[in-house]
Amino acid sequence: MIKTKITSTGSYLPEKRLTNIDIEKIIDTSDAWITERTGIKERRIANESETTSELAYCAAKRALEKKNINSCELDLIIVATVSGDMPFPATACILQDKLGAKKAAAFDISAACCGFLYGMSIADSFIKTGLYKKILLVGVEVLSKFIDWNDRSTCILFGDGAGAAILEPTNSDSGIISTHLYSDGSLWDLIHIPGGGALHPTSKYTLENKLHYIKMRGNETYKVAVKILESLVIDTLKANNLNPSDLSLLIPHQANLRIILSTAKRLGIGLEKILINIDKYGNTSAASIPIALDEAIDSGRIKKGDYVLLEAIGAGLTWASALIRW
Ligand code: UT7
Question: Among the atoms of ligand 1, which is closest to the Cα of residue 258?
Answer without folding.
Answer: 11
